[in-house]
Amino acid sequence: MSEKNKDFFRETTEEGLKKAGYESGAEVSEEVRVLHQKLEEMGKTGRGYLDLEAPVALVEEPATETLEQKEKREKFERVATNLLDCFNFNPGKESFLVITDDKVIAENGVLVEALRSQLEQITSKDPRTKGNFEIIVVPASPKSATPFGKEIGEKIKSRPVLIITSMSRSHSSETGAAIRGEISSREEYAKILRSPDLRRLAESGFSGFSLKFFEEMAEHDGSLPQGFYEKLKRHAAKNKIRLISITKGHNPYEILTKGAVEESTDILRERGDKVDKLLKDVQKVRIASPAGTDLVMEIRPDKTEIEDARVDKPGKLANYPLGEWSCSPFLEHASGILVADGPIGGNHNLDMVKKFGPLKYRIENGVIVEINDLPIDQDTGNELAESVKNYLRTGGPHGFRLAEFGVGTNGKACEGKPDEWVGSSEGEKKYGTIHIAFGSNGTFGVEKTDPNFNDCSIHCDNVIGWQSEVTVECTKKDGITFNFIEAGRPRGY
Helix, strand, or coil here: 213? Predict the structure, then answer.
């Protein structure tokens, strides 16, 4: 457990609630206070989460269910079924993990209860697999990409994982490592295998390792044979995490029952495949808009995510609701002006962008150097600019580095919703827009040794093309150019 998380748990309940994103003086239910107190108690023992062991009801059923409560419950039950269907979960071969936080449980426990009920049904079809799932609760965080800690990092490996948290955690360092299929270093494995206890077990015939293996280690001066380590790496690559993350989980009713979720999965898959084919050999993109965007960057189609309701293979990742193609860019030579005229990450919804924006970034070699024509260390006097700047700072130095080039593919995203409900989680999916993110990029498969890897605890999306028509010109490796989006109109997908 990190020192930062230990500090969190040392705080009083009131301070803990404040850090979790509750406004000062806000009314908080007794349930959320109890959950925070329990999490604080667990934190003092060095553990940063609570288990909700099945079958345990997460919400108390009302004596008389109103029509509104019934409609909400039934819609969340359908959502739960659709989410789990994306994974093609096989309880005979794997164990399912749900990670949520105390704020979600307190404010929308009905959604987590619906998932628990569905998982209980799926795993109970065979008595041997009954209860082959876990639901764990972590402290809520006001930042996206907040690390989960080493213990949860181990839990999420080689299994299907559903994250439902108040802020998106799909770009945390632990999920990034699991998506990449990372394993411990060769030296760390050797240290474990040099244990005298393991050698004694092998001599007694109670270990999966033969005495010959230890003899080979001795021949290599106690280091792990390279061939064996390569086998471990190949095994890890075949057993990468499969992940869906639900963002804005503390208030999910609108985002999970209206708008983007109403788009056909067949359409999303068709568009996703077309975008992937169109951008497969693209080396460079130029993004321009009447609002002032003029940004050039080299993209990496080999480091991609396609959110199309298929999370059935190792290494697949999706942020719900679905509907985007995205990749990580190269930092070098990525320069120009980016004007975000749509919702921005860190809870800067469309109403705020329309009131105080749009927001103008100057980028040099993949790093923000100015916001609204002023160096990032100078006060702009603009509420939106300063709020976004402060949010990026919470991610450390890499919070200002380019992380993602993304394309929205969902024709129903944010349809019929007021501006105050339109956040980046769903707004980035809107068909005809693109989004550029800063901060964490590990879930795209960018290795830690890559100079373009961002070690960061936030991921901040910026939607472009919401209030002005964006154009994206692509240049392929062979020099051929084409317009992927022209004046807000997608071409070929």
Answer: helix
Among 30-34, 91-95, 162-166, the range scoring the smallest mean pLDDT is 30-34
The helix, strand and coil proportions of the chain, stated in percent and rounded to the nearest 5, come to 40, 25, 40
Position 346 pLDDT exceeds 80? yes
Contact 145, 456 (CB under 8 A): yes
HEC per residue, 293-353: CEEEEEEEEEEEEEECCCCCCCCCEEEECCCEEEEEECCCCCEEEEEECCCECCCECHHHH
Nearest to 469 by CA among 449, 452, 489: 489
pLDDT tops 90 at residue 226: no
Q: Where are the beta strands (DSSP E) in 401-477?
A: 402-408, 434-439, 459-464, 471-476
Provide the sign of the torsion angle of the four alpha carbons 369, 372, 375, 378, taken in this order: negative
pTM, rounded to two decimals:
0.78
Residue 206 is predicted with a pLDDT of 59
User: Cα separation of 116 and 97, whole Å?
Assistant: 10
- Pick from 374, 365, 373: nearest CA to 336: 365
Token representation of residue 287: 């993004």
